[in-house]
TrEMBL record:
Signal peptide (UniProt feature, chain positions): 1-17
Name used for this protein in its record: Transporter substrate-binding domain-containing protein
Keyword terms: Signal
Provenance organism: Deinococcus metalli
Organism lineage string: Bacteria, Thermotogati, Deinococcota, Deinococci, Deinococcales
Domain of life: Bacteria
Length: 292
């Protein structure tokens, strides 16, 4: 009996000593939509205990971290994925799968209020950025995944402008206030809390056209501090992606997490304290091949 008891004891000790599998998840700013939605899923799903959040600058850093094996999951804009595949022709993207399709993120384009002047003959002239077309030959600040969106919109809408890559939101608006750029472009899920705190800037409309179909959709922005009227814009779908892991322990964590989120969508949409963007999520439109 002693050898058997010893074997069982050793097996139990080994099982207790075996480290649990933990996966890192690239989200974004601690006050951003990605971080909020990751935390919301954590309230509903015990599988979140195996996932650790890693704050980042956004989609562009997130996909780079995922492709370089620094994290196992990442929240990204689908246009960033498409750009990696079609523009950069990065073969590693073929190994990326969608764990959960999420909400649409709206493009927010900010500029200083236009200046209206009247000459001595009574003719008025307006200077500044009041439409997307006004960005022609001007400078636009962006950061994270918004850099890719700024490039794609410029190309698809035929409006050439210079894109200034900045570290973060504060740097972008410092550049705008300092006159170094004419506008700031940010892709973020509405309502963004920090937009509600802005003053001295306007939201610039972006009209949806057929040139944007397949990647962007029509949307509207509504912030009380930006005026009473809704501002037309475009949006891109976000998605929680992972690599096509085959090992049983990782696969089980990911599929259990996926199943839990899919099962608890109503709770994520209706429970108090959940991000309002959950109300747009259907889990029906997958902008990227699904992890299975």
């Amino acid at each position: 009996m002693k050898p058997l008891a010893l074997t069982l004891a050793l097996s139990l000790t080994a099982a207790q000593a075996a480290p649990a599998t933990f996966l890192n998840v690239a989200t974004g700013s601690s006050t951003g939509t990605y971080s909020a939605m990751f935390k919301n899923i954590g309230v509903q799903c015990t599988q979140s205990a195996y996932l650790k959040e890693r704050g980042t600058s956004g989609s562009l850093e997130n996909i780079d971290l995922l492709l370089s094996n620094q994290v196992s999951l990442a929240f990204v804009q689908s246009d960033v994925l498409k750009a990696k595949q079609q523009i950069d022709q990065d073969a590693r993207v073929e190994n990326i799968k969608a764990l959960l399709p999420l909400h649409n993120e709206e493009v927010h384009l900010f500029a200083k209020p236009a200046v209206v002047k009247k000459n001595i003959f009574g003719k008025t002239t307006t200077t500044g950025v009041t439409t997307f077309a006004d960005l022609k030959n001007k400078k636009v600040a962006a950061w994270g995944g918004s850099l890719i969106t700024a490039k794609v919109l410029s190309a698809k809408l035929g409006v050439p402008y210079t894109i200034l890559s900045v570290k973060d939101r504060d740097a972008a608006f410092n550049a705008l206030n300092g006159g170094q750029v004419d506008a700031v472009l940010a892709v973020v899920g509405q309502p963004a809390s920090w937009v509600k705190d802005l003053n001295g800037v306007n939201l610039v409309p972006i009209a949806y056209t057929a040139a944007l179909s397949g990647l962007y959709s029509s949307a509207k922005l509504l912030y009380e501090n930006m005026g009473a009227d809704a501002v037309p814009t475009v949006a891109v779908q976000s998605v929680l992606v992972t690599r096509d892991f085959k090992t049983p322990d990782k696969k089980k964590i990911l599929l259990d997490y996926q199943k839990c989120a899919l099962t608890h969508l109503v709770n994520l949409q209706e429970d108090e304290g959940m991000h309002p963007k959950w109300q747009e999520v259907t889990f029906k439109t997958w902008p990227w091949p699904q992890y299975k």
